[in-house]
Amino acid sequence: MADNTPQLPDFIQRFLAIQPGGVSHAGGLMACMIGVLAACAWMLGGISMMISAGIAVALMLVLSPMISPEILMKMLRASPLSGEDYPAIHEMSRLLSERAELGHKPKLFLLPGKGVNAITTGTDDNTTIAISSDAVHGLSPRQMRAILAHEVAHAWHGDTRILLITDVLYRATWTIALFGLAIFIFGDFNPPTWMIILFGAVPTISFLFQRAVIRDREFAADHGASDLLNGPEDMIDALLHIDQINRKRLGLVPYRSTQPPSLLDTHPSVGARIKALRALKPGTWQKFFENRRMPPQ
């Protein structure tokens, strides 16, 4: 039986990082988030409200420091990954960080719980990578090195800062939209129906763009890992093995081949990530980081 599930056009799937697009669209997606916020503020109070929203976002970015990695690790019940018990993992992390020219070796933590997972947080010289127990004990050394390379790429890109900016933009949009709905409902203003619907929808629109930015950074980190590893083979092998472990440990149900991943997902599908890795040209390896290194001081 033919599947009649509607799908988004290919160019939209690429822009929203559901499917690989070959280039990063993070800047365009963040511009869309800014546009949604600006439009919402303008409809509510014109230019003055737009300026106020811009000032509020700037203050939030300055005054809202990222959660300390130490606090986040405590919240996740993660414990330091012992260098004595896991010397090979620490050595892999050191070598990959040196190759990416991070300037420091990330702190390593062990996450409890089921499934293969890894988290990168912190900035500058305070980068922290947390790896799940299933990853430490269920992956081969080459697969573990691929996961570490992916996380090191996140750190090098400054993805924690990017996600902080998108979070602030989303929260600001949500606040203005909620404020506008409150005025519409409890105030004397009698707006048209379309405006009420629009103010109810803009937080969701901003949230979808935020999720797309996260997926975009995952594609970029896969690219960076491929560069650090001199090719995508180890990353592809790691993704396939992780998918098998997580389906077994977490009971995940795979997407149908004809159904695109949800717009709410934080990661592209494994198939899309592998497709992007296989599309990388050999000439791009080892140049991903070299072309983006800071000029000497």
Q: How many domains?
A: 1
Q: Give the radius of gyration.
A: 21 Å
Classification by helices and strands = mainly alpha
Distance between the termini: 63 Å
- Count of β-strands: 4
Unreliable segments of 5+ consecutive residues:
1-5, 255-260, 292-297
Q: Specify the overall morphology.
A: elongated
Question: Into which percentage range does the β-strand content fall?
Answer: 5-15%
Biggest beta sheet attributes? 4 strands, mixed
Q: Mean pLDDT, as a whole number?
A: 86
Count of alpha/pi helices: 10
Helical fraction: 55-70%
Name the helix and strand elements from N-terminus to C-terminus, one letter apiece: HHHEHEEEHHHHHH
What is the topology, as strand order, of the major beta sheet?
1-2-4-3
Explain what the structure shows:
Strand 3 and strand 4 form a beta hairpin. This protein has one domain. A four-stranded mixed β-sheet has the order 1-2-4-3, with helices on both faces. The chain has about 300 residues and is mainly α. The protein contains ten helices and four strands, in the order αααβαβββαααααα. The chain starts with 9 loop residues before the first helix and ends in a 19-residue tail after the last helix.
